[in-house]
Amino acid sequence: MGDLKNRFGPGLSTIFLILVLFWLAVMVLAPNLMMIDYALRPNLPPAAIGGPDDRYSLANITYLAGEATHRAIFFKTIWASGLVAAVTFLVCYPIAFWMAQRATTGQLAIALMLIIIPFFINEVLRTLAWFIILAYRGPLNAVLLNLGIIDGPIRWQGDGGVLAAMVYAYILFMLLPIYNAIESLEKAQIEAARDLGASPWRIHTRVVIPHAKAGIATGFVFTFMLAAGSYVAPALLGSPGSRWFTEIIYNWFFEGGDWNRGAAYALVLLVLCLAVVLITLRLFRVNLTDVAK
User: Fold this and answer.
1) Residue 9 Rama label (left phi>0; alpha psi -120 to 50; beta)
2) Per residue in 263-278, pLDDT tens?
3) Residue 100 Cα distances to 89, 94, 162, 194, angstroms
4) 103-122 pLDDT, tens per residue?
5) What is the rounded CA–CA span in Å between residue 110 and residue 119?
6) Count of beta carbons in the 10 Å neighbourhood of residue 116
7) Which of 101, 185, 244, 285 is within CB 3.0–4.6 Å of 234 for a Cys-Cys bond?
8) DSSP symbols for 178-236
9) Under the phi-then-psi rule, with left for phi > 0, alpha for psi from -120 to 50, and beta for the rest, what region is 18?
């Protein structure tokens, strides 16, 4: 607050602070409090709201514990979101390292342009593009058939299609934090490690990755949270056997008409995602301040 006041003056800094607090109250705090309220109350007809049956309880949350199918989809969503984050890291780390340590200014500009411009398009349209690519008679099957790699078309929709679409959809949220972290690493440190006989694997595991751990943790947090809360990719590219927990929440809200149970499911997902995020930060030995940077 002191730095903000010194930079913009007391009047403007106060306005900024009020706007931030208003945004947090209206866009973050109020919706979550409403979700908690809905989750702890039963689904009642309008005439019964406020009556003797309208009491707070954990019935909507315990319903999930007793519903084996929903519980399995819930845990599958959690570990699959972790898998999305891990695969996205494996894809992004070499690119981020090349951009930060090897690319020239011109190459960096072209790479950023090629990576960022597709994201000017809406996520739904980008997912539909993957739907076309992975279609039964789509271009991927056509290329594989012409090359003789497969004997017949393959149905790519399912867990594999969802994974590919999510890795592509959230690549920026992993790539840019890692790139920013590696960019601050002095090239002389890498050259010194190489001069001392360190192998490329040892350079990355002992020098680059420890230096970039804050960026890696940030990328994991963003990618995991976005994947766990994704609806578009599972809905368009998933199969009956690859349902996502967000689809169950959507069904409770818009097909089952039970907002209370849908809010309870969303609350459980939010709490567990936050727990996974905190555990991840603990494992990386990174705090929220480092992520905020």
Assistant:
1) left
2) 999 999 999 888 888 8
3) 15, 10, 29, 17
4) 988 999 999 898 888 888 88
5) 15
6) 12
7) 244
8) HHHHHHTS-HHHHHHHHHTT--HHHHIIIIIHHHTHHHHHHHHHHHHHHHHT--HHHHH
9) alpha
